[in-house]
């Protein structure tokens, strides 16, 4: 589509989503959080199709979403 972006490891998607939600909740940035998570989901889907590991990426995304909403922090186990 004429636009380039880097493709990160699936585990990084977990931290990016979780941390965006935690920062947004802490500072009351509802629009920022929604926009960031939505754009991250679109990028995950596009990169997952290109890299052939869409299910792993989506699984990490949803775990990050769940842990962000519940406030779980720390290392991913």
Shape: globular
Binned, the helix content reads over 70%
Question: What's the N-to-C terminus distance?
Answer: 36 Å
Characterize the quaternary organization of these chains.
Answer: single chain
Count the DSSP helices: 3
Describe the protein's architecture and organization.
There is one protein chain. With about 80 residues, the chain is mainly α. It has a domain at about 30-70. Helix content is about 75%, strand content about 0%. It has 3 helices and no strands. The chain has helices at about 10-25, 30-50, 55-70. α1 runs antiparallel to α2 (about 30-50) and α2 packs antiparallel against α3. The longest helix is centred in the middle third of the chain and has 22 residues, at about 30-50. It is globular. The chain starts with 9 loop residues before the first helix and ends in a 7-residue tail after the last helix. The model has no long low-confidence stretch (mean pLDDT about 85).
